[in-house]
Protein: Sulfhydryl oxidase
Amino acid sequence: MKIVRNPVVSVIISVIILFTLYYSLSSTSSLSEPKPIAPSTKSNELIKDDKEIVNTPFMPKMANETIKAELGRSSWKLFHTILARYPVTPTENERETLDQFIQLFAKIYPCGDCAQHFNKLLDEFPPQTSSRSIASVWGCDIHNKVNKRLNKPLYDCAHIIEDYDCGCGEDEENAKKEAFEIEKEGKQSGG
Ligand SMILES: *[C@@H]1O[C@H](CO)[C@@H](O)[C@H](O)[C@H]1NC(C)=O
Structure:
């Protein structure tokens, strides 16, 4: 006996078959193709996917001891000043930024032989970024490890915070004053 189909049913069956075919094909093709990498949502994240960050120091050896010592003094000053002004309670992003800065600074430091030593120290004693005081004391400790290797006198890290007065108190006072002025202006213009 011949099966008589309603044309509407035939169309529906054809559509179902087409969809099934389409989805099975598209799912197998997505299996064979690599998934595109989702773009990073963090704007400050370093580009690591298609541009490899150099992971070892690469600057030439610095022969002139006078220039080397001068560079060292300036760099330690910058280093300790950054840590002294670093937030008391940093955000996750700020912690990541400090960590990456120190790691990259150690790679690109212009005295290549110094950078080799400092980079090894960082592997052993990674940056501690959880607060201003912890970061500052970590920075002081690592400076002392370098001092020890160079037979230089050690620094008393118990006083690093007072000794490296960052002037943050003053800046924070000014920021408060500014905020107050803005608030006052807002009230006045509001009536
Ligand atoms: C090292 O650099 C300083 C400053 O540029 C220069 O006066 C001195 O002559 C240099 N020393 C040597 C040994 O080249």
Notes: The domain at 57-178 is CATH 1.20.120.310 (Four Helix Bundle (Hemerythrin (Met), subunit A)). DSSP finds seven helices and no strands in the chain. Confidence is low (pLDDT under 50) at residues 27-45.
